[in-house]
Design goal:
By secondary structure, the chain is an alpha/beta fold. The protein has two domains: about 5-80, Alpha-Beta Plaits (2-Layer Sandwich), CATH 3.30.70; about 85-280, Formyl transferase, N-terminal domain (Rossmann fold, 3-Layer(aba) Sandwich), CATH 3.40.50. The protein has helices spanning about 15-25, 60-70, 95-105, 125, 145-155, 175-180, 200-205, 240-265, and strands at about 5-10, 30-40, 45-55, 75-80, 85-90, 110-115, 135, 160-165, 185-190, 210-220, 230-235, 270, 275-280.
Length: about 280
Amino acid sequence: MTRYYRVLIDCKDEKGLVYKISKTFFDFGLNVEKNREFVDAQNGKFFMRSEVSGRFEPAALEAELKLVLPESAAIRLVEPRPKRVVLMVTKESHCLGDILIRHEAGELEAEIVGVVSNYDLLRGLVEKFEIPYVCVSHEGLQRAEHEAKIVEALKAFGEIDYIVLAKYMRILTPEFVSRYDEKIINIHHSFLPAFIGANPYKQAYDRGVKIIGATAHFVNNNLDEGPIISQGTIPVDHAMDWKQMQSAGRDVEKIVLAKALKLALEDKIFVYANKTVIFD
């Protein structure tokens, strides 16, 4: 039976790596459908993403690759499949609705298994797509208590590959983040680093900015400082008020978040040193 796999390699750079890897693929009789590689010369790091097909045992291929790569090499063989995704939201619908529509249209290599919110406002939208919606209110709860209830809600969905904060407007604790390390993708309403706090578009308007943008990144324990996946900007001018900037900015947010999620679903992201290598 023909198998299709994504081979992801992250290791110390040295001479002949592309040759050694390619020869191993050849020796296994594999067809290389796609291939990208990158060398970070400053840090001596090598990254390679290959899509291969053929009749082979993945464990045997991984074992052979280990023999020809540096000892500390990280090797992942990923069989393409729809990844299980949970969306988390608060009150805004633009990013949520965009992802749901893309999912319905078959644009995302994902199975959206549920939506979790701290409000009940978006239930009607989500249920139109026949996706489970769970409201976990934060009212009257300490942050740790609220997150414990969210964790229980997430556990009920079974295995989760990614959690997407589609404008989920509550800060997550280190305990929650560590539980889902490199699995939480957030959309930030600016081209980081930039305006922080409430109403960033009003702040941008008051400063007379000429571009606005959005940043999608993995969440870590430094607020809005996780590894950046995707960014986008659009020009604005003095004729726009802050509400017009907000409307335009929300369009950027949708596009940037959808792109970041697509990259993650297709295993095109390597994370290291709090940044990313993207094979788009």
